[in-house]
């Protein structure tokens, strides 16, 4: 059985992050989420942080360490989209998405690694997306930010793997959250037809994979990209 761990999830006030936090709580772990507003599920500690601001993340980690102990499992989940076609995409549309999804993950992991190196144990889980490797028209910014997480996890694996730390990527397909609800209905239908499973997933279906990756059962898995996409992205 996996011992109880201290877990921190960024962007845990809604969507996939909220569900991941709920699942870790249900499995008996000590759970904290970061939020810019609102709060995580019952049983989780909510700390205010913005992943674009290293100082706010540092303060959030310090609070979590004081209340729950050193962070052993970190889930870099916070993410945004600014979808538009390349010729309409402003440089701010591009750099804002990179700053949150990629540099935000870097800031989170860097801060978490301090305690993990000391403990010689850690689980780093980066929430990417099927479009990171599949590509997507209108998402040059988002897909670039998400594929870069694969290189990050693999370099982390090579750098930290000898210290009992694993780093993996979870690549969800279409999940029922605010992010997909924002898509036009005809686009949602078209996507559903292209997914071999014929449906979107629930956030819980992602959460269960994340908690498994954090468990002792997954201790020898590192640098992997685990798809949770109903078969949409097969072949890479
Ligand atoms: N839904 C999907 O189909 C899908 C598919 C593949 C990958 N993903 C990825 O899964 C992750 C979660 O997505 P979701 O669908 O749950 O999205 P969501 O419902 O839009 O929630 C996004 C979360 O990220 C937080 N966040 C955004 N910018 C932040 C910042 N600068 N600092 C701190 N937190 C920030 C949001 O906080 P606020 O409430 O404060 O905005 C919110 O908690 C994202 O990385 C997304 O790219 C989602």
TrEMBL record:
A GO MF term: 3-oxoacyl-[acyl-carrier-protein] reductase (NADPH) activity
Domain Ketoreductase stretches: 5-178
Keyword Hydrolase: no
Oxidoreductase is among the record's keywords: yes
Keyword line: Oxidoreductase
SMART domains assigned to the protein according to its UniProt record, in alphabetical order: PKS_KR
EC identifiers of the protein: 1.1.1.100
A Pfam family recorded for this sequence: adh_short_C2
InterPro entries: KR_dom, NAD(P)-bd_dom_sf, SDR, SDR_fam
Similarity remark: Belongs to the short-chain dehydrogenases/reductases (SDR) family.
NCBIfam families associated with the record: PRK12826.1-2
PANTHER family to which the protein is assigned, alphabetical: 3-OXOACYL-(ACYL-CARRIER-PROTEIN) REDUCTASE (PTHR42879), 3-OXOACYL-[ACYL-CARRIER-PROTEIN] REDUCTASE FABG (PTHR42879:SF2)
UniProt protein name: 3-oxoacyl-ACP reductase FabG
GN (gene name): fabG
